[in-house]
Amino acid sequence: MRPEILFPLFAPIGALTGVGPHNAKLIEQAAGPRVVDLLWHRPSGLIDRRYAPPVAEAKPGSIATLTITVDTHLPPRIPRLPYKIYAHDASGQLALVFFHARADYLLKTLPVGATRIVSGRIEMFQGLPQITHPDAIGTPEEIESIRTVAPVYPLSAGLSLKVITKAIRLALARTRALPEWQDPALVARHTWPSWHQALLALHAPQSEADLAPTTPARRRLAYDELLASQLAVGLVREHLRQRPGRPTRGDGSLRARVLAALPFNLTASQEQAIDEIERDLASPNRMLRLLQGDVGSGKTVVAFLAMLIAAEAGGQAALMAPTELLARQHYATIAPLAAAAGIEVVLLTGRDKGREREASRAALAEGRIALAVGTHALVQEEVGFADLRLAVIDEQHRFGVHQRMLMTAKGQAVDLLVMTATPIPRTLMLAAYGDLDGSRLTEKPAGRKPVDTRALPIERLDEVIAAVARAIDSGAKVYWVCPLVEESEELDLEAATARHRSLTERFGARVGLVHGGLKPLEKDRVMASFSNGGIDILVATTVIEVGVDVPAATVMVIEHAERFGLAQLHQLRGRVGRSSRASTCLLLYAPPLTQGARARINILRETDDGFRIAEEDLRLRGAGEVLGTRQSGLPMFRLADLGLHSDLLEIARDDARLALERDPTLTGARGAALRVLLYLFERDAVVKYARAG
Ligand code: ADP
Ligand code: MG
After folding, report:
1. Which of 130, 292, 376, 549 shows its CA 20 to 30 Å from the CA of 222?
2. Residue 678: which of 143, 226, 138 has the closest Cα?
3. For residue 608, how far is its CA from the centre of ligand 1 (angstroms)?
4. Of 541, 537, 559, residue with least CA distance to 493
């Protein structure tokens, strides 16, 4: 139940006396449907009417509040022209300009000979200061109410500043101090105001500086929101942890054989990831671990070794990939290693049919085969496991939570390892999952050389083609990625097709083309020919699979690189540099580059650390866009900005953890206040997880 103290804030906007149904609808479009949404509707600017110079000193372009005496009215001779009023003070003369004016109204508000206050933006016209349509006109007694600073709010079509300002005032009037939910020491250390004071200050900026995300008021409110969200993830997590798991321990025998057969040594971060997974599997709690690492960082081997632990323990493990191609690629990596360990792996995809598929199914159901690799075919109803203990899901962003659940439902208390090649910035990880266990592969396997990354204007296409010719003559394979023209496959395809045609004119059958419209079999055929056949240059739309592994590919050309996001460019570049041979990435752009595009290209040239790039991406684009907040299931923040308040997020994480440790039922004095906080920020769906005393 929502605490009663918050009821007035969760009323619909229409419930505010003074806001009619028409305006309520407009306000809803700008801010949201409830009173509380108005509280979180932050000013985007302010109008400062405190500047009150003598007329002659009023700076053009500034907003000034002037005390003037009206001299003459000059109605227009023809209706198109403005109505002008001349006025003065001791320092000089001023014109007031009105289009489509009503003379009777102007004569009443600005009578000749009267002293009046006018406020508006100063322009210079033919050497004379003027104000077109003053924002405010009043008598000298009204100067105090005109010479003020007022916030400016984001609006929606048809909504006036006046209307929303009034609604926000009414909403604020409904608020009052709430019991402090923050740790007093923390509040004191940061010299933060109380929630209520902070809220009032947020809506009463006195200067531009007050609009900054760094003011104590804004940071306090951002922290409130972050703490609410961290408490929520903490509660969910605690709840999940309580679900019984099963300890799975292996004797290391299979792993030892595989490690002996590997043609390389594991990197330190691979070793560490495997240790972490091994510990999770052995614990009686369920594992939910995210394995993050750039394309080519060697996640598959880690996943496979984890799967072997399940097999050593007499259980089964499955690896699910989002596409046929990736499933087959994983299988191709894993099968020979499994053979070295003397165990079998089943491949199960939508394409396998008939007797073979039947045999695979039976082998898994009866537990004769311990390991399975496949697509979502693995979660189909007719697929069963004798004792599935570990599910590994590759490239999680392509699967819904639903599929994850189907996969883990194939066994008892299945441990889950999710692999992603999209490095999620730490900040976003924290915001979305709290302290979800994560393993990161931060190093490239030994012997890999950094990709030489260069940016070139498209005018230098001839040079690029010459370089490509040299590269393929020396045995290299080249990716050529075509621009994302719009959010339209069709248009993308046109550009790719045209490039394919022009490159074919020059290089003949050595050029191939893949795009989203190809049938899966056709796509596989082209990819296979690129991987180890006659195709040396692969023209592709951005559909080329994230995980595709063609070690011989050493050149990546990206056309219209300025149109891609940073993370996307990084992913594309990750397709090369996958062997000990030197690789090159050529970013072709159409000048002039915007500042943002230049920044992206520069970062890319500077570093190939996916995690750093992800953080930079977050900084450049803001959290909302990085993962497409809504689809990604990330929480929405109204007061916190993950790019700007990430320091607070870390504190909130620790704070939430400590608070839940001390008071898991949220029933103590602070606990009760924290419940109010959860409701205030609508993270209350999880309150039921606050363990019953
Ligand atoms: P990811 O799935 O992270 O993109 P993969 O697991 O497909 O990366 O590994 C990419 C390539 O690197 C594979 O050919 C794999 O055999 C190889 N590889 C993995 N780990 C190492 C290592 N420690 N040293 C050298 N090569 C490695
Ligand atoms: Mg992979």
Report:
1. 292
2. 226
3. 16
4. 541
Residues 180, 673 contacting (CB under 8 angstroms): yes
List, in order of start, the domains of the chain with CATH numbers: 50-147 (2.40.50.140), 177-234+643-693 (no CATH), 253-441 (3.40.50.300), 452-626 (3.40.50.300)
Q: How big, in percent rounded to 5, are the helix, strand and coil portions of the chain?
A: 45, 20, 35
Q: Hey, what are 211's tokens?
A: 């609009």
Inter-axis angle of helices 610-621 and 426-433, nearest 10: 80
Task: Return the bridge partners of 537, or none.
Answer: 478, 511
Whole-structure pTM value: 0.62
Q: Which protein residues are within 6 Å of ligand 1, measured from CB? A: 264, 266-267, 270, 293, 295-301, 333, 421, 445-446, 547, 549
Q: What is the pLDDT of residue 209?
A: 95
Ligand nearest to the CA of 580: 1
- Type of residue numbered 191: T
Cβ atoms within 10 A of the Cβ of 68, count?
21
Atom of ligand 1 nearest to the CA of 302: 6
CA–CA dist 693, 690 (Å, integer): 9
Measured CA to CA in angstroms, residue 466 lies from 291, 461, 482, 505, 509 at distances of 40, 9, 18, 14, 17
Task: With H, G, I as helix, E, B as strand and everything else as coil, classify residue 152.
Answer: strand
Residues with C-beta atoms within 5 A of ion ligand 2:
547
Q: How far apart are CA 527 and CA 529, in angstroms?
A: 5
Q: What is the pLDDT of residues 255-308, one digit of tens each?
A: 999 999 999 999 999 999 999 999 999 998 888 888 988 777 899 999 999 999
Per-residue pLDDT, averaged over 553-576, amounts to: 88
**Which region, left, alpha or beta, applies to residue 100 given φ > 0 means left and ψ of -120 to 50 means alpha?**
left
The three-state secondary structure class of 133 is coil
Q: Which of 328, 330, 549, 573 gets mutated to test ligand 1 (max ligand atoms within 8 A of its CB)? A: 549
The rounded distance, in Å, linking the Cα atoms of 193 and 187 is 7
CA of 685 to the centre of ligand 2 (A): 36
Query: Nearest Cα to 286, choosing from 318, 244, 238?
Result: 244
CA-to-CA distance for 210 and 201, rounded, in angstroms? 8
Task: Write down the pLDDT at residue 233.
Answer: 79
Residue 297 alpha carbon, nearest atom of ligand 1: 3
Residues 1-29: tens digit of each pLDDT? 788 899 999 999 999 988 999 999 999 99
Handedness of CA 264, 268, 270, 272 (dihedral sign): positive
With residue 465 as reference, give the H or E element that holds it. helix 461-473
- DSSP output for 200-222: HHHT---SGGGGSTTSHHHHHHH
CB 542 within 8 A of CB 514: no
Q: Give me 150's structure tokens.
A: 């007022």
The dihedral of CA 633, 639, 645, 647: what is its sign?
negative
Look up residue 353 and give its amino acid.
K
Q: Give the burial class of 36: count Cβ atoms within 10 A of its Cβ; 0-12 exposed, 13-18 middle, 19 or more buried.
A: buried
User: Is the torsion defined by CA of 67, 59, 42, 176 positive or negative?
Assistant: negative
